Amino acid sequence: MPDPAPALARRLLAELVGTGLLVAVVIGSGIAAQELSPQDTGLQLLQNSITTVFGLGVLILVFGPVSGAHFNPVVSAVDWVLGRRHGTGLSGSDVLGYAAAQIIGGIAGAVLANLMFDLPALQISDTGRTGLGLWVGEVVATAGLIAVIVALARTGRASLSAAAVASWIGAAYWFTSSTSFANPAVTLSRMFSDTFAGIQPSSVPAFVLAQILGAVVGAVLVTALYPDAPAAAGSVVVPAEATPHRPSDRSRS
Amino acid sequence: MPDPAPALARRLLAELVGTGLLVAVVIGSGIAAQELSPQDTGLQLLQNSITTVFGLGVLILVFGPVSGAHFNPVVSAVDWVLGRRHGTGLSGSDVLGYAAAQIIGGIAGAVLANLMFDLPALQISDTGRTGLGLWVGEVVATAGLIAVIVALARTGRASLSAAAVASWIGAAYWFTSSTSFANPAVTLSRMFSDTFAGIQPSSVPAFVLAQILGAVVGAVLVTALYPDAPAAAGSVVVPAEATPHRPSDRSRS
Amino acid sequence: MPDPAPALARRLLAELVGTGLLVAVVIGSGIAAQELSPQDTGLQLLQNSITTVFGLGVLILVFGPVSGAHFNPVVSAVDWVLGRRHGTGLSGSDVLGYAAAQIIGGIAGAVLANLMFDLPALQISDTGRTGLGLWVGEVVATAGLIAVIVALARTGRASLSAAAVASWIGAAYWFTSSTSFANPAVTLSRMFSDTFAGIQPSSVPAFVLAQILGAVVGAVLVTALYPDAPAAAGSVVVPAEATPHRPSDRSRS
Amino acid sequence: MPDPAPALARRLLAELVGTGLLVAVVIGSGIAAQELSPQDTGLQLLQNSITTVFGLGVLILVFGPVSGAHFNPVVSAVDWVLGRRHGTGLSGSDVLGYAAAQIIGGIAGAVLANLMFDLPALQISDTGRTGLGLWVGEVVATAGLIAVIVALARTGRASLSAAAVASWIGAAYWFTSSTSFANPAVTLSRMFSDTFAGIQPSSVPAFVLAQILGAVVGAVLVTALYPDAPAAAGSVVVPAEATPHRPSDRSRS
To answer: Where is the chain membrane-spanning (chains A, B, C, D) (predicted)?
Structure first.
């Protein structure tokens, strides 16, 4: 009988590498934008946001069938909370493992971005991001993210998640004042790059609190809109269409 | 036996929140663009239009299975008019409810955008938008919007509506002189933001008239192109592929 | 028994309106780009090309099930030539009708764009576009266009035509030196706008010749790559997935 | 009984023309960007990267059903290595043929781009691209490319390869410091254009070595994530959904 341990290890590997690459995409493109278009901050954000749309969408496609491609502790937590009703979704201990993998991977991704652009590998951002407007922005961005993911899962359209999640984040870079971090693991990782995409440590706690609040708002909203979730839809938040390995992994872990 | 009231309430909630987020996307990204790229209005419109494409497409995916994701009184009205032949589509009173939810939600979205960017919550635009060229632009943009939605519904391709509607609006931001408001609820809401995306109240009536005229032109055109609508296609204008909740909602309301 | 005449009329209406809107998209967005970003021609072309991708893709979706959404005389001609083997595709007289509708519609679209932007309705471009490099560009752009359309039709993936054709033209705006007119009807129409997207009459004949040559190159290439076209694939060049009206239209005309 | 030779010839034709057009897209759009937006290098890279996304995606759609649309020797090599287990994939001699066609086609594409823009047909770049950061960038970009292709093939989603591969390259233009060549054939070809996209010959060997290393990293990663590849998934790396000609070609060659 197969050992479930490798399966969970593989899922944690997917979350670690996927979140790492996501952070490298966000920070790396921010550095490139800052270097190549020094005279227009809006053009930098356009370059940064378009890159994130392309990169995040692909990463969800690549890692989704293995781990769900959460790359985000609040997404994993919502998967756990909403899935408990049907005994599906991540377990509480899975969420801790996912979150650890996401944070470790994300910080490694920041270091990778620094190395690629010949910057000091370890650095701390001093970009302050604070204020009520920004926090409201994080609430809106995270609530929308959760609503997108759960709405697609509950209507059998999870195969659209890659494009939809990437598009939402791309839009929220612009229409929220906070440029839509919407992800505690990515927020923590962005402390470690003193560049365009960075955030200083003292700004992080309020951002994370706003993200948690946003996740709650999003979960309440989407539950009001789609109250009768099919049992199957609760088990994975961002699954892929074809998941030859996933079902057995899940039933064992 | 289930009570139909929550079903209609859920649909109105979807139209309210969806239109609110759409307006927040349009106005919020306009504010960000204006702040970040102050020297090139075209670059601002590019940022604004790309954000709208991403945001609108996602919002249609999220809210479509609940309410049809109209977000637009003329779309709801066309759904009612074209659906009457088969006894499908929205009822006349549904259209009033939809329009009220869209307008209330839209204005709330304008306020939300103002709050996110630390601007006064309540403000009135003084951006005049008037002239024959602009009105022709609104007619073209709205006619095209109606044609896209109905053509896809009548050919069984409504699952493409999210991408197609978003793309049409994104194109019409540029190729019409009016930057394609194409939506009376969004037009009214944009009065409440004295920023890049605003429109002063005195310019609104002519815009709305042009949009109504455009909807008529679009409905006539698409009826000429696709005269034999299947009965099923008349019932919803922007449905989603998988709609576990929708059929019963509709038959009850 | 139904009268075939309306069916052909409907197809010609689709080609006329579709080509008109395509030209309005191309010229209108060029005018807006020129007005809003006067200091950077590359930024103007970026705005123009992104708008064309969004607009052309949607127009193919809307008009495809009626007429094939050719919008382009060389596409119609290739449909006729390649379809003769199986007795499918357009007839020779259909091609003449299509071309007439495309040209008339295209010119009307140029006038519409001028009107929307409060420019003189009738004008002639004085933008010279001539030289071997540009002509090679038109050959490459048109050959690729034909290859994309026929390859997708011959492999049963015509539902991807809207996105693929739009993407090809968007790329060819940039990587060919001619900015990829690739369409005799659109080329003729662009004579009638003395703006960013215009072309002076004396430059048109060589462009059209290059486009015809490109169509031949594309047809030869795609026939070498996909020699065994299924009979069904020859009948329409840009069909849609769901075409309730099309089959009967075609068999009657 | 049919002769297998034309089948292989057709596949090599597809790789030759496809890689040629890919290089023309990359170099041609770089030249146009440099000419049209001379004042902002970041804007040039944005134009170059968006064009590449559109162009590469279409080329994969067009040539995929014939040859797999590798356009890249390391992709062909990975197809061979990973496919050996099931006796599927390219043979070793196929890989040599593919690589030769890719390199010849790519260089011809560079010449074509030069001709379209009225530049000397033959030229050698003197743009140095060297340093640890850039090499790490090439490793990351190529590893990701391989992971995307193989992950989609192993989960039965190869029809998403066109969009996913194009999006990955578009993102990697920005988030890696090397602007993501990620392809030895394209790297060699870009020596032959002394323009925006060029690379001087002395910088090429290290780039190619980094790409080979990246391919190994990507293959190891994706094998760890998706260990149990179905036999069918090993046979082609970038297949198309509908491949009427392919199966017989492959079984004979």
So the answer is: 12-33, 53-75, 95-117, 132-153, 165-186, 206-226
